[in-house]
Amino acid sequence: MISERVTGSRVIRTVVRAEAEAVAALHARARATYCPDGHPDDGADGRAAWLGAVERPDRQVLCVVEEGRIVGLASFRTVEAVPAETVHLLQFHVDPDRWRAGIGTALHTACLEQWRADGRRTAVLRVCRDNLRAQAFCARHGWGPDPGQPPAEGDHRLFLRRDVTGE
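Above: the chain sequence. Below: its structure as C-alpha cells.
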C-alpha cells in the first residue's frame, strides 16, 4: 500500500473508510462534468459503493488531499481473469474546479510508483469514447489503444493500455 507522499501542500495517500462520502461526492462532480448529458443512474448508493471499494482487500483507492480536502482519486485492482502482472485502473478523477493544476499528473505518478512496487508490468483502463479530455490526458501519460480489446461497434468505451515498467 502506498505510504503517504507529500509534495508541497499536496498529500497523496490511501483513502480511509470515513472518507467514502467525500470520495463519492468528488466522483459525482467529476462524472457530471465529463458526462454533461447525464450518466445512467443504476440506483447504486455512491457512498456505499466507495466504502466497498475502500474495504476490498484486492483493491486500492488513493486520494490527493490539498488544504484538508480530497481533490483527486484513483482506484485500481488486479482481476482474476487476466495475468497477475496487469492492473486495472478502475476510476481516476480530479475535482473539476482543480483541473490543470497538476493534480492528475501527481496522482498518475503515484499510481505508477505503486504498480511498480507491486510488481505490475501493464495497466489497463476503460475511458468513455466521448471523454476527449480524459483521452488526451491518457495519451500525454503514455496510454494507447489496447490491441487485445479493440473498440466494438456501438460501444461507448475505449480500452487503453500502458507499460508500467518504464517511464
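Helices lie at 20-34, 46-55, 103-117, 132-140.
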